[in-house]
Amino acid sequence: MPYDALERLKDLIELSKLGGGRERIEQQHRKGKLTARERIELLMDEGSFHELDRFAVHQSTDFGMDKKKYLGDGVITGYGTVNGRLTFVYAHDFTVFGGSIGEIFGKKIAKVMDLAIKVGAPIVGLNDSGGARIQEGVSSLIACSEIFYRNTIASGVIPQIVAIMGPCAGAAVYSPALMDFIIMVKNSFMFVTGPEVVKAALGQEVSFEELGGAMIHAKESGIAHFIANDDAEAIDLIKRLLSYLPQNNSEEPPLVDMGDDPNRTDKNLLKIVPPDPYKPYDMREVIRSVLDGNEFFEVQSMWAKNLIIGFGRLNSMTVGVVANQPLYLAGVLDIDSSNKAARFVRFCDAFNIPIITFVDVPGYLPGTEQERGGIIKHGSKLLFAYSEATVPKITVIIRKAYGGAYCAMGSKYSKADINLAWPTAEIAVMGPESAVRVLYRKQLKRMREEGMDTEEVVKRIVKEYKERFANPYVAAEKGIIDDVINPEETRPVLIKALEMLKDKREARPLKKHGNIQL
Ligand code: HXC
């Protein structure tokens, strides 16, 4: 080979590493951000990354673009391993046209996604982009649409994880919305259009933070599944998340032995549920107690806090946990918590992750706000998601399981495989006080009209109702639950059920797809 040819290759490779140039790299660093390359280096096992299309450049000539070409065109794509497992990646390079998505940029992402889908390995996006590249007009919209299409086709086939690591707008947030998990770095932003466009369109002055800061999306919109203090922490979260997941929908999640005894019991569980049924307790204590190494990787921990979701392991196997949280709103199901749980259940089902459900729910949240907001349609998603899921489903009723919320939280009749109850479980259409007031409304009204004190009568009937329904044994008599268990043995009982269900196969009628409420 002529010496010059090799030199040229080396020079071009060095040039491609500079992205938008040294000054813009320094700007990126000054903002406390890593460059796209540095992010990939942190993500991938050392020396494992192989880049694709590093010499690609845009073909645009409008707006003087023909004079501004950067090797790689503002996105780095390729493959390598993360903790030894094949993973595909693309990282927006904000130093080149603000990481905006042009025709070639989009084609690069489409190519790496096609490969990921073909070989069945996760795709990780590291986003830092102003969205569709304005100078490229409709070509950039096509590029964005090609990405959206692949996000959709990949959904339920390979895990799709994205970290938002800068100000992201337009297509740089819609593609994440189509993916499975979004991690936001604290000084990053997500909005459909940035503050400048908001000002031009609506005359509103709004800060980046107010419009789409990480905390807004963690606490209010629920769009961010995880928050990281910086780029490095975001990459760590991606790695941790991947460790729970299979490579694709036809594989099982990896087994990770944490050295925890499957027969371990926990006496503390006997003390968790307070004697007063209206007193809250932290359901996380139950979850942590039963999982391997007491390790629970919570998802969307700041949004819809009345319901907990996340990953853990039981005897080395990945499980998805869904649980009501009595600490917030008494663990009631509302619009946000139904959406949160339903999407998580569907993710677990798509990726062969068994679902463990812990129930303590007083019902669906009543009231005009919820009704007008569409609790009927949003709440139905949970019924749909559990019924549709064919992965092993094990449910433990800890305390209350009332009404429609009982049906929704992995009940026997949404085809949960094993339903267990603690002796503190209460399974009923509604709580005793409400039930008595509905059932005896006319009698109580008459008594009040006759000047009688109804409180004593209510107390007596509530007591009778509780004795009849506020325990797990009526349900146990009917086989609605499979067993009432000693709380301290929850972990070993769950593990035995999970082992038994390991090879579960359940068929559903053939269809194109269901019609879940949206
Ligand atoms: C081309 C862009 C760009 C874009 C940013 N830049 N966004 N170039 N197309 N979409 C360029 C800027 O001109 C600037 O170049 C450089 O990137 C850095 O941007 P700054 O504005 O200086 O940075 P910052 O102040 O941090 O603000 C970042 C930003 C802002 C919030 C992303 O640039 C912004 O509001 N951009 C537009 C966002 C937007 O409305 N996108 C929607 C596109 S439509 P110079 O050379 O001056 O440094 C879309 C279709 C989606 O995506 C379809 C959905 C279904």
Descriptive overview:
This protein is of the alpha/beta class and 518 residues long. The protein folds into three domains: 3-244, 2-enoyl-CoA Hydratase, Chain A, domain 1, CATH 3.90.226; 269-430 and 471-501, 2-enoyl-CoA Hydratase, Chain A, domain 1 (Alpha-Beta Complex); 432-469, no CATH class. The protein contains 21 helices and 17 strands. The chain has helices spanning 3-16, 22-30, 36-43, 103-119, 138-154, 171-177, 195-202, 208-212, 214-219, 231-244, 269-272, 283-290, 335-350, 368-373, 375-388, 403-408, 432-439, 441-449, 455-469, 473-477, 490-501, and strands at 50-52, 75-82, 85-92, 123-127, 160-164, 167-169, 181-185, 189-191, 226-228, 297-299, 307-314, 317-324, 355-361, 393-402, 418-421, 426-428, 483-484. The strands form three sheets. Strands 10, 11, 12, 13, 14, 15, 16 and 17 form an eight-stranded mixed beta sheet that branches. α5 links the parallel β4 (123-127) and β5. The longest helix has 17 residues, at 103-119. The model has no long low-confidence stretch (mean pLDDT 95).
- Give the strand content: 15-25%
Count of all domains: 3
- Reading off the top of the CATH hierarchy, the class of the largest domain is best stated as Alpha Beta
Structural class: alpha/beta
Bound molecules: hexanoyl-coenzyme A
How does the major sheet shape up?
A: 8 strands, mixed
Radius of gyration: 27 Å
- Form type: elongated
CATH architecture of the largest domain: Alpha-Beta Complex
Output the CATH homologous superfamily of the largest domain. Answer: 2-enoyl-CoA Hydratase, Chain A, domain 1
> CATH topology of the largest domain, which one?
2-enoyl-CoA Hydratase, Chain A, domain 1
Helical content, roughly?
40-55%
How far is it from the N-terminal to the C-terminal residue, by CA? 60 Å
- Summed over residues and divided by their number, the pLDDT gives a mean of 95
| Number of continuous helical runs | 21
Uncertain parts = none
